[in-house]
Amino acid sequence: MLTLEAVGRQFGPLWAVQDVSFTVRRGEIVGIIGPNGAGKSTLFNLIAGAVAPSAGDIRFLDHRITGAKPYHVARLGLARTFQIPKPFKQLSVHENVMLSALRRHRTPHRSNPVTARTMELVGIAHVADQLAANLTVGLLKKLEMARALATEPSLLLLDEVMAGLTPSEITEMMTVIESLPQHGTTVLWVEHVMRAIMTVAQRLVVLHRGRIIAEGSPAEVSANAAVIKAYLGESYVHATR
Amino acid sequence: MNAIAQLLVSGIMLGGIYALMSIGLTLIFGVLKIVNFAHGEFLMLAMYLAWTIVSLLGVSVYAAAIIVIPLLFVFGALVYLLIVRPAVGKPHLIVVFATMGVSIAMQNLALLLMSADLRDVPPVFAGTPIRIGSIYLRIELVLGFLISVGISLALMLFIKRSYFGKAIRATVQDRDAAMLMGINVPQLFLLTFAGGSALVGLAGCIMLPLYSVFPTVGLNFVLIAFVVVVLGGMGSIEGALFGGICIGLVQSFSGYYVAPAYGQLFYFVVFLLVMLLRPNGLLGQRGAAMVGINT
Amino acid sequence: MVTLPGPTTRINVMSFSAAPRRGALSVIELLVLAACIAAAAIVTNRHAADVMIQTFLWGGLALAWNIAGGYTGLISFGHAAFFGIGAYTSTILLLRYGISPWIGLAAGALMAASAGALLTTVCARLRGPFFILSTLAMGEVTRITALNGQSLTGGAEGLEIAPVASVANMVFIGKAPYLALILVYTLTLYALSVWIERSRYGFYLFATRDDDDAAAAIGINPIAMRISAMTLSAALTAIGGTLFAQYFLYLDPTHIISPDISFKFALICAVGGLGTAIGPILGALIIVPASELLRSLLSQSSSGLHLVIYGIIVTVVILYFPSGISGGIARVSSALSRMFVDEKKRT
Q: In chain A, which residues have their Cβ closer than 8 Å to the Cβ of C200?
């Protein structure tokens, strides 16, 4: 579904992302992890179209989206969330979600079923009429998720959705993400909150200093020496639990 | 060849004066992150005040500056307290409309009080031009240039060395962090706005011998000021000098080679080009002065 | 990571406009419209009719401005350029080639639309104050061009239309036909605005206004939205310009393409309520009759006084009543409905 080939991005002399290649298959939940500064955000923005690659190719559903504009990528069926939520502040929660649904359903009236369903799924139906500007952080993040889901995407890009959530909210969000493939949405997820992503993701890609250093199931990756070295340092490679 | 040398030198001199006119705007934008649409009218006010003092007391504009500068400082402070302060931190739209309202009100108040007639002051020092080789320059132009550059350099030094200057640079970079560090940001805002207005006061005095004043004179100059600020980068005094000189040169050459009627048009076209091609200023990411995001 | 506050930095320009309406037109709006129509139907006094014509015309022009300024956040202080383009195009076509203003109206709209599209395409990346400045520049460029294009535009002396009544030439005897025509213009624009507010297009405009990146992330092309809004706004403003020319029968650049006129569009919307359909009408209902009153009370020598007052009004309104009159009405009516409706029934 999504293929990256030797993708790289340069900022001045520094390669934030270099020679990254991987594939995301339909129905998967793939996670991208790595220590701070690994290039996760840059990679994310490269796929979403916010930044153009300096090298390499990105293909999504047989379309070449290397350097494509964000709205073009979105129209192809690739939705994204923003790490710091960007709702439309002067619109209500309902209207925010409806805006996303309008892409496929054209009129507010016809978008209502999808809007209602998405709000239920994510758990914000109870604040539907509140102004987005008045929401708490947890609800804002849920709204971010709802806004992305209401476009009924084939691939959902999640950008550190767990940041700032309480433990119970994290668990709720994990349940939502887990259910997505059943509803026809593949997930590519950048995350820092380990307990969430290690549990839910089926496959992980580990980034360090802009390059992929490991790929595999959560169990494989957590035992990988290179990964441990990157996160914790050389001295922990042989540490026992 | 003579013409080019003449145009070059007078362009640079004019540019220095444009820079002085624009420094207030760039500082206000850098520190308060707002755009004062009434900037041109502040200049108009300064020019009318200077004219009144010159007409009443018979002194030169440079002496009149002694009165005009503090008057503009106070005026700036009042405008800040009454109009700008309630608008800071709110959506940008509000300060745009508010300063626009002030601009329109001031323009028409001037029309009411002073009528649309052009006002001039008599030339300084009996109007003999200064001669450098084959280049003739008006004394007022040279004086204006020297004062402008002098003040600009003094300001640059002040901002680099003094505590107040450091406070300004800190606030330009990160308002919240500056507050956390104990900088009295609201007071800084007031002083910057009033100080910027005072600079406009000085600029008005210097410019009066060179340009007639009339109620809508501000509209011409505010656009020049904005272009200068954009060219040189928001919040940068060096940038204002550089931008000013660029625009001075453009004005000087276009005034000579392009028909006067279209001179202004040409000037706006330059403005649009600058906005498009180099919206972040020709100096790019210069130094510490050019930073910050609104809210 | 540092970002420069340059002209292309995103600044949230509009954050307080009324959210798009979900239900039926509010009762108060319907009353206001009905009152307008009724007043137009029964007026007999020539002077009163003249004031009404001006009021409705300004209301319509403000509605046109609102599509770009209120709905899309493209605040323009140079809209008089479009107004002038409309007025001059139809008038030049009429005077030089005998083309009926009914057609000239469309030609003017087309010219203005092109200008609007050009401006926005070229200045699409500019944000907030810098976009506003570019609109100011556009206004001035247009005025200076009109002033200097003697052969075409009559320069500073302007153009005059002969007051010879003819439906084909859109010149009428008496005020009633003009009143009807302009009322149709304004009500059409009102209906259009209401439709926009409830349609996908309108929602996309609001999204573009509020947050470019978030809009792009859900498939909206912000630049295309901006260009289309400005183009539409320009065309509709130009039509108003043609109507104006046909009513006043005289144009000159200093009065038609002035910053004062541009400012008035914005003023009316600000007072009435930015980003709402009824706002521009309410604003016009207040500003136009009031300025007429002022003009009749003050002597000739106080030219410009009304503008001083406008300036003060706009400053006060925007600082203390940012949602204008329609915001006030919305607050009042929601307070009223809260009194009458059971609390539990409202979410």
A: 102, 106-108
